[in-house]
Specification:
This protein is an alpha+beta fold. It binds guanosine-5'-triphosphate and magnesium ion. Magnesium ion (MG) binds next to α1.
Length: 637
Amino acid sequence: MSNYLIGTAGHVGHGKTTLIKALADTNAEKINNENRQKSTKYLDFTHFTLSTEKVCSIIDVPGYKKYINDVIAGLGGVDCVLLAVDAEEGIMQQTREHFEIIQLLDVQACIPVITGIDKVERNVVNEIEKNIKDLMKGSSYTKSTVMKVSAITGEGIDKLISAIEKTLNKLTPRDTEGSFRMPVDQVYNLPGVGTVVTGSIYQGATEKERMVEILPTGKRGKVRHVQVYDRTCDKAEAGQRAVLNISKIEERDIRRGDQVIRPGLMKPTLDLDTRVEVLASSPHPLKNKVKVRLHIATGETFGQIILLDRETLEPGESGYARILLETQIGALPEDRFIMRAPSGIYTWGGGKVIDPHPPHHRRFDKSVIDMLKLKDKGDNEVLVESIMKKEPYKLYNQEMLTAATYLSLEEAGVLISKMQKKDKLYRNTSGRFQLLSVMNKLADKTYDILEKLQDLQPDRLGRSLEEVKRNLSKVDSGLFREIIVYLKDNSKIQEKNGLLVTSDFSPELTPEQQEVYAWIVEEFNASDFTPPTKGDLHLNKKFKKPVIDHVIDYMIFTGELVSIDDNVFLTPGNLEKAKRIIGNYIIKHGGIIPGQVRELLGTTRKYVIPLLEYLDKTYFTRRKDGKRVLFRENIVV
Ligand SMILES: Nc1nc2c(ncn2[C@@H]2O[C@H](COP(=O)(O)OP(=O)(O)OP(=O)(O)O)[C@@H](O)[C@H]2O)c(=O)[nH]1
Ligand SMILES: [Mg+2]
């Protein structure tokens, strides 16, 4: 089932209430207690069903000038407005003012309706139709057909119903899945029930027993009772008008303008970044620091306008502004608002919330304006890219994007996955990410640095992480670690014995080192399980200790030696042989002790103890009941 919110608009006495009575085919009592002659005061509500799957809630607004605040509050959440124009009087002052408000609120659709066509000749109706078309010229409603009806004779009502149906079919449906949000337009106390609030549901849904929060107070309570279309039900959703009874909320805790929301959906704010526009009909320009009366959703407050890139906005102009509010409100990006003179005498203009929790910024800062333009356009992908490019030397997470863009966590998640699928984002296993273009650039730079360091000293066996990082001082350590992982995953670099090398790197030996190398190889070839230790090699007077150490490291790097501990080394062949002998012995006898190893390998305690510790450390063996057994029983040796 689809639900729509339809509002009325138009000058006082232009037949709005009578028209919706005709549409709803309902009696006067159902709409209100007032009789037909009475002007509408405040807001009235009813509903009618267009076809089986479409129910329209109607918000009937008063035409009388002094109730303009109700008009703004009533039309804030509607999908479509019926703009009534009386066939005798034609376009009047409130027709224009209401039409301006409809445009500033960016209501999706507006159907102009000439009412009371029974009262005048056809040519008068045609003249008014022409005037209405002129009024709508340049707006987003120029394609709307002007409807002509008489609520008294019923002429044109059927056509109007099908026009409404057709219009609603083209609208973007409301988001019933998102987080619940209902600005409050009425609060009253029902004896025996308690505090009851009514409102149009802007987005999401709520149901009995759900926890809700009241903004701006932050008080929370459970939905105790739900009523939609005059009936008690379990659930109310976007596009419906709902009556809610909420536990723990007293009448004094909530008033019109407050919002009932899914707990945590938004936080109250005193600052807004906005795009404002001044009506062409405004009698005054909008000057920096001016005070305005601000209407947003069903709420009202005062705010000071800080124009961010100029001193004045002339009538008909628009620009970016920070609004400093006098009282806290709840707002989301894309919310529309109306600005009126503080005295309430005229409508100054309106605007759109771009950022409801903006960071501090200075006026006349080009980068601030550029960012606002991107947010204004709503191209979140471009926005995210520009945010990350601005500070590229760190990793981001979902929360950081949420804070910088005011996308919800869920929306940020969807956007990140989309960008990742498009190969725009690199994301690590813990969900942190960076633009792939930034990753590639930094990875190339890191690789070049490592290569340059290797070229400068080709005999060194590798570079420590710190040494490479020193050349990338701007990059934070989390991102640096990720770049190393990224380069390793792409087989561009390797980490050997804790040192970084490019994958194609092989260290060079100096003539002196080559001589030491030849000697050590010979020494190792001459012995099986009693090879020279580092200490033994140091006893040689012909070669310097640091050169010997370097060549040992080199041989570990190239895989010619395995370091059993700091002092003892084995060739990989001999290590494998030792493992085979020890393994087979354990399998046969259920365990082995150091003395048996010594005998089997024909070696001494000096080697046996480090070797067994090495085998424990590398999960080949483990200690059990004073013996060594295989780490895993089923190991094949
Ligand atoms: N002849 C005729 N009279 C109409 C028609 N529609 C409304 N009226 C009369 O016009 C008067 C004003 O109508 P309402 O429906 O109260 O006008 P409204 O726009 O709701 O007025 P406000 O709520 O004060 O803004 C009433 O006396 C209606 O009976 C119509 O189609 N034909
Ligand atoms: Mg009325």
